[in-house]
Amino acid sequence: MQITKETLQKIAHLARLEVKPEKQESLLKDLSDILTWVERLDEIDTDGVEPLTHMSAEINNIREDKATNSLTKADALKLAPNHDQNFFLVPKVIKTRTK
Q1: By the 8 A CB rule, do 32 and 2 touch?
Q2: Would the pTM of this model clear 0.70, i.e. be above it?
Q3: Half-sphere exposure of 41 (CA within 13 A, CB side)
Q4: How far apart, in whole angstroms, are the C-alpha atoms of residue 79 and residue 64?
């Protein structure tokens, strides 16, 4: 399949690409080669072949998601190096600008 310069410019516009004039011929040839290769897929007999939704027959063994209270708020705060009654205290990491 041959791609025209107008088609290339339209594709470039839609993709928000800037194609330099010296690269157009090379890009036209590459796109034509790619489309020719893809057209070869039409030659494959796919009658009776079910479409795939996944490339593998593997099944995820997902455990049931159960909410549990494994650590109380008080116990979590006890483990922190610095805390107050309700929150973890951490060093300030955002610097303010000086003018």
Answers
A1: yes
A2: no
A3: 4
A4: 29
83 strand-pairing partners: 88
Query: Distance (Å, rounded) from C-alpha 19 to C-alpha 88?
Result: 53
- 90 contact partners, CB below 8 Å, separation of at least 6: 82
Output the pLDDT for position 96.
79
- How confident is the prediction along the chain (99 residues), in pLDDT tens digits per residue? 778 999 999 999 999 999 999 999 999 999 999 999 999 999 999 899 888 887 887 888 888 888 887 888 899 999 999 999 899 999 888 887 776
Can you tell me the distance from the alpha carbon of 99 to that of 97, in angstroms, rounded to the nearest whole number? 6
27: left (phi over 0), alpha (psi -120 to 50) or beta: alpha
Three-state SS at 88 = strand
Cα 40 from Cα 43, distance rounded (Å): 6
